[in-house]
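Hi all, long-time lurker, first post. I run a small reading group and we've been trying to get comfortable going from sequence to structure in the token notation. Rather than ask abstract questions, I figured I'd post a concrete chain and ask someone more experienced to write out its structure so we can walk through it together at our next meeting. Sequence below, copied exactly:
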Amino acid sequence: MFEKVRHLNKSTKDRERTWKIIVNMILTIGAAVVSLPFLWMLSTSLKTDSQIMSEKLIWIPNPIDWVNYWEAATYIPYFQYLKNTVFVSIISVIGVLTAASLVAFGFAKLRAPGRNFLFIVLLCSMMLPGQVTMIPVFILFRNLGWYNSLKALTIPAFMGGGAFNIFLLRQFFMGIPNEVIEAAKIDGCSYFDIYWRIVLPLGKPALTTVAIFTFVATWNDFMSPLIYLKDQSKYTIALGLQFFQSMHSTEHALLMAAALITVLPIIIIFFFAQEHFIKGVSLEGGIKG
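-- Answer (accepted) --
Happy to help. Here is the structure in token form:
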């Protein structure tokens, strides 16, 4: 009897081990395939013109031409574009986290008539394409004097925070036990104290996820700067990269170097914040244990 049980357990463990090996192999192959364009971009950015035009497939350039990065960063005011992009991205993250977390807290923990109906209306707004409101918003911003100003890229972040971000935070905040909220009320906490001292600390994974989403979207945003910015000194890095491409469309090494410089900060941020990102998208908040 015990031998059969031991044999059954061993067979189950062997199957699980085999399945894990297969899954890991599939994931490794998938990761390698997805990484190929990035590796090719890195390789091309370090090549000379003769290596790029060579009929042979060259993955490891010899010699390595590091000058491409310096030329890509100096042909255009790259550091000015970088400064503008960092400023817009940080202000947008602050605005979205502030506005979206307040609205999400209201939908998750405050009782009010019509709360669920308003939340459904909010979700329905996600189905409205941005192209529909593009012209009215442009006219509004122009009348406010925000045209050709970074205000058009930063101030809207404080106006609600976005339906998807509110939805993500609301789902996470709903996982916080109501008993904790009621206990805080008994201790004399106001709603803002509950939001500031309890909900925000417990919601760090979801807030980190929203911050990453917002930062990446703002960093890569091309359409908004194209519409609202006119002076080159106010360009963001996405618009500056397109401007660089229009001037050096045939210089592939410089293009790849400029593109790699553009995406590198995003890769670094995601690498260090991936643990919080995974926790945040699980849509499960609250206290465990």
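A couple of things your group might point at:
The chain has a mean pLDDT of 85.
The chain has two domains: 2-45, 67-280.
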